Amino acid sequence: MQAYFDQLDRVRYEGPQSTNPLAFRHYNPDELVLGKRMEDHLRFAACYWHTFCWNGADMFGVGAFNRPWQQPGEALELAKRKADVAFEFFHKLNVPFYCFHDVDVSPEGASLKEYKNNFAQMVDVLAAKQEQSGVKLLWGTANCFTNPRYGAGAATNPDPEVFSWAATQVVTAMNATHKLGGDNYVLWGGREGYETLLNTDLRQEREQIGRFMQMVVEHKHKMGFQGTLLIEPKPQEPTKHQYDYDVATVYGFLKQFGLENEIKVNSEATHATLAGHSFPPEIATASARGLCG
Q: What GO cellular component is one of the record's annotations (predicted)?
């Protein structure tokens, strides 16, 4: 396998006096804190999407990065090359976990049949990489927001074919997460919201996504997944009025559909900011409601 970061040493703990910019000065994975290893307190993970999928594009220009796994070529072979790069990166960074969206690690293809076949092959590749490296999957999820079919939502979409496509992606990604020994499965509804009430049936959309989440829970128990299901609250981006606006909103949603004991939350600091909160109140709300994931 070609090495991509062979000029870099692995990041290690060197103590607070170290002047090495690529070293841990305060994070010592093996140091005991309150009887527990620091690595077990701070479960760092590297994400696939921002790290390996962004090509440098912005609103004013096309992608400017020259990365070997983003060159023209056969999509599945490029995905395997990306996995080589990713796991070398995880090793060099000395992180114990990684996480992904389905289409981060596998080509979407032109049909659901291609999607499932590609993903199945890449799950085998990832399983081998995990075995070789010792890096574990913190969580997996399905990208049900980038493809134009999801412009009007995924689980909340008025088109039953789009709803079914999203359900297939989620089931397939859940199965992959389970096979790879993932600790959690995340549900982030980037398009599950609306911009205007003029073309929105709030009751219908809420009932659709509620039933969708109930089916997710049913599938979790059916396949014997022992990990945690997580909803990641986030408003304003890309859809202004989100059904998972903040932790309190998610709690109300879960209570309505009898899911408050089945799904927890995966909170992010910047998502709290988008909701008009600082991060501590979001964590406190999740803790008070028993939703900390």
A: cytoplasm
